[in-house]
Amino acid sequence: MGNKESSEAGFGSDALDMGSYRIDRLPKRERSTTELWMARAGIPLAVLCFILFGFLWTPDFLLAFSADVLPDRALVVLEEVGRDEMIRRNAFMLAIFLVGMILWTAQSIPNYLTSLIIIITLVLTEVLTEREAYAQLGHPIMWLNIMSFILASMLVKTGLAKRFTLWFILRFGQNASRVFLSFIVINVTLSAFISATTAKAAILLPIFMVIAAIYGSRPGTGKANFGRNIVLQNLLNINLGAGAFVTGSGANLLAAALISGAITGGVFFADWMMAMLPTMLGLMLIGYILGMKMVFPLEEKEKLPQVEGGMQRLKEEYDKLGPVRWDEIRAAVIFLTILGLWATDRLHGISPTAVAFVGGIVALMPRIGIVEWNDVDIPWHLMLFSAGAYCLGAGFAQTGLPNIAVDAFFTGIGLDQSTPFWVLYLILTGVMCYSALLSQSKTMRAMIFVPIAIGTAEHFGHPVISLALPVAFLIEHVYVLPFNSKPAALLYETNMYSLTDAIKYGIIMMTFGWLAVIIMGETWFRFLGITPNGVFGIF
User: Is the pTM of this model over 0.85?
Assistant: First the structure.
């Protein structure tokens, strides 16, 4: 059987069967030569880095650190253990961080296994105590993710998400352009309710894969531009939609919590939405135009359905759902109530995690609720992966490694108190944006770069939100490489686009994302009081 036939066979013989595109039925994608080389080199390189930085060589900036740059928790540790021990722990922290980056990037072993190795290594090297390391599995954001998967399972079981998506596509998706614009609306709507990008991807993937087949795009070799567009644009919009709301992902909430701890008041749902919903909608439209008109332009035949009766199959799927049921109405009421409480958090002060917790309890409640525990699909391997990222964050807080590195960096390039705000703004947002190319975890990037932005703002005498919030707004730009996020890894398995396609489209959109934060910093963010005098102070 040829390459193309093999690839397609994994999806089932009926290209319009939505069940063929469930996550658990995606065929295992064969690794490219480069990916295989990286996987083989990952473990030896990780071991070499651990030995080098943990035992043989300590970089000068770790030896010469000033206690003035350490965060409060690290200062407490410094007083308890002394300078020499602090240097030793920072050396191991750097070594463990590099090991995590190498293994997560190379994918030599499963991501959750890398996280487990990180957790126990932090314990054995005494960077963290056992209580501190193991407690990360109970982090509030972990509970938000668990509750989000419970609520997403409610949407799946009742068919509410499928009903809404199919109705919208059938109502507005008469041609290719309308299909893509419809998915923008669908992604934004789901992002307001679901705090897990992987859950959104799981809900949408079967639907847009069937639509791709209707328009003549199938997995495997000979990839068509419609298929490239629909998968890559959905990957983009899943992430950008999450960036429109502080509840869009656990990493957003973590960033908001870090910033709220450094300012009077806090970062609320409405604050984030006012700043980022217009920004993300603009970027989604740019992504649509860029994909359809420039990077992957559609041929005339691709602009209309190519499979006779294809849209009728979607109509049949919609009809199978029958009339709106009582459990769907209850699910809608629960979600609207959750959204209402999230949107009014400034008034009542209840955290988004607590709100989702109550929603999850109601959804599981016997006779009152909608789902049973066996209906809930919680990907625990992803939870373990996240726990490893949180452990790295806890290690950074204990050792102050990011603060030490930032201080050494600014000193090394000659920046002092006279440095203009715009220089700091461009450096911090640029590094945050493009760091996604090297990272497996949005959470870890939030834990590294948001504290750096907070420390930089305090060091140079600027309002914390003027640097930290724009940095946080760039968390969700994780759609270029398969290891950049869980949805990216998932959708890459569809075999509808190549790594080159993802890099070409993703790098351009990532750059637009950075430029958007710069432009909004001079205009809209200034109007909202985030950047006090704009970025460049032009207006």
Answer: no
